Prior knowledge:
Chain A is of the alpha/beta class. Chain A contains ten helices and eleven strands. Chain A has helices spanning about 65-75, 105-110, 125-135, 140-155, 160, 175-185, 205-220, 230-235, 255-260, 265-270, and strands at about 20, 25-40, 40-50, 55-60, 85-90, 95, 110-115, 195, 225, 240-245, 250-255. Chain B contains 18 helices and three strands. Chain B has helices at about 5-50, 70, 90-100, 105-115, 120-130, 145-155, 165, 170-180, 190-195, 210-240, 245-255, 260-275, 285-305, 310-320, 325-350, 355-360, 380-390, 395-425; strands at about 55-65, 140-145, 185-190. Chain B is extended and about 115 Å long. The interface between A and B is medium-sized, with 28 and 23 residues.
Amino acid sequence: MTDIANSTVPPVPPECKTTGVVTVPQPLITARGVNVFYGDKRALKDVSIDIANNQVLAMIGPSGCGKSTFLRCFNRMNDTIDGARVTGSLQLEGQDIYEKRQDVVQLRARIGMVFQKPNPFPKSIYDNVAYGPRIHGLAADRIELDEIVQTSLKRAGLWEEVKDRLAAPGTSLSGGQQQRLCIARTIAVNPEVILMDEPCSALDPIATARIEDLIDELRASYAIIIVTHSMQQAARVSQRTAYFHLGDLIEVGETDRIFTNPRHKLTEDYITGRFG
Amino acid sequence: MSKTVAQTRALVEKSLRRRRLAELRFQAYGIAAVSIGVLFVILLFGSIIAKGAPAFRQAYVTLDVFIDPEVLYPDGTVDTELLATADYVALVRGSLKQRFMDVEGRAATRQLVELVSGSAVQDLQALVQADPKRVGTHQMLTFLADDKVDQYLKGNITRSTPEVDRSLSDQQLDWVDALKASKALELRFNKVFFTHGDSREPEQAGVWGAVVGSLYTLGVTLLLSFPVAVATAIYLEEFARRNRWTDLIEVNINNLAAVPSIVYGLLGLAMFLNFFGMPRSAPLVGGLVLALLTLPTIIIASRAALKGVPPSIREAAIGMGASPIQTVLHHVLPLAMPGMLTGTIIGMARALGETAPLLMIGMVAFIVDVPGSLSSPATVLPVQVFLWADSPERAFVERTSGAILVLLAFLVLMNATAVILRNRFERRW
């Protein structure tokens, strides 16, 4: 977290309400008035937004704006941080994500996540992809498991490159391949939502382009939420964009509209490169 | 005031020389420090090996023994029952007198018999009792020579040593020389040292009892401390919430690692012996005490190993929907295992060399028998070293160093195991 007092990011005017349309017809996830506290610090302030199916939502904003924090609310990754507290309502198909009875294991099987730095397990390529189906008991036998692994790798566009060395360690792949392996691992459990936390920030432009193409293909089957530092990337891969600023959700809208005709002053200043 | 390029370059050149010198000086200090360390290691090992190596050889005397029926069956009746109580010393004496015909008088004869270890009598008895048909035959038998003869053969006692200091008379030395000249007396591999327990007679004393005692003790220590320490480390590192209690536990574990080992001995004495009434001098109790001693070490090493696992692996597992225990067992533990094993072996090596706490629970007793169970009286290698270092006989000097060599061999073996295990479990990420 950057120290906000010393950053060059301008403050949010008081009584700020999100500009643009936060709702969508038939939302998969609805977030209403979500706050996140790290100890006494309020990292996210009253964020409300809907997530649509078969669509990519890009979350952009300067460092420390709360976009990653918000992303980690969806699969309750914030639970693992001591002193983190989430208030408000987050519902996945009408079911409260933060309800006591909600099992996080089940939740994370429905909402997969791809991280900033490719983090394959120090196991074989096969075992990396097979891990999710194994722990969730998705394959009845070895044949079915083989099938899941193959389909997942194919959908992640990695099959042709690794089909002859499935037993090789996942860490022996290049950075871009590792990230696609992580995506294959995530889709192997057939989730409904995929969260991506700056998935390309550790990759070169060619690997980035491949991942972006992949995201576009995966959109047909999943709801995808991607956090990115690159506005070009947001413009390329997403249909909706949300701009966060110091913990506030400033503006939400169709990506084309946000980048061509931002309504809020802060959004405009950010995408035109005045700060950030 | 700005300098020209030439001026700047000249200044940089000048500073370069100073920096290079500083670097060389620092390297020299480093090399000197390393050399001193290496020198002391060489001195230590050199002196121990030089002193201890002779302990692996021992003087044996080969005699032609006539198993005289007149001695074994004095009444003339052949009764194998009598073999249990017969006068075997007389047989040894007879054999030696046969060799040295000119020896007469009780005193001289006793001196002659002193050249052979007391174990010769037991060996002979065992041999005859095993097969009574040997009575009446001549046998070429090899016995342990007395420790003083052994020392003379190894040159630790010479004729120039004053007679009072060497406990061998000139007459005895003459006999020894005669036996040596006829190849009846020679140095051989000291099997007794590696197969027997402790003894008051140096030539009959061995480290095997202590080795077995050490193995039993360390076995108990390992079985107890490894699972407990790993479970503790995993719980504290992966599951426990940070609060005042966990902080308190952490501080206490760190403090326990620094507690002098004899304090653990006192604890063991008070708790295991006096309160629970466990047997004295037993490997079981020794193992319990050493387990308490090694627990903090292994916990600290295991926690460090767990901390060293990259958080990205945990995140990946949690993100995939693995439960906390699955995350730990499938991903974190395999990566932390090399570090945990290294810590464990370091802890075990410390336990192997530990003497003080075992003195408190009675493992310092003089124990001849090789321990047969976890509750039978035993001693351990470092305590054996301590006991022998305290013994007045000259022959125990080299046996002390010999026992240290065995102890060091164990340590090297354990460290090698640690390296092998670490390499086997090591995985890159």
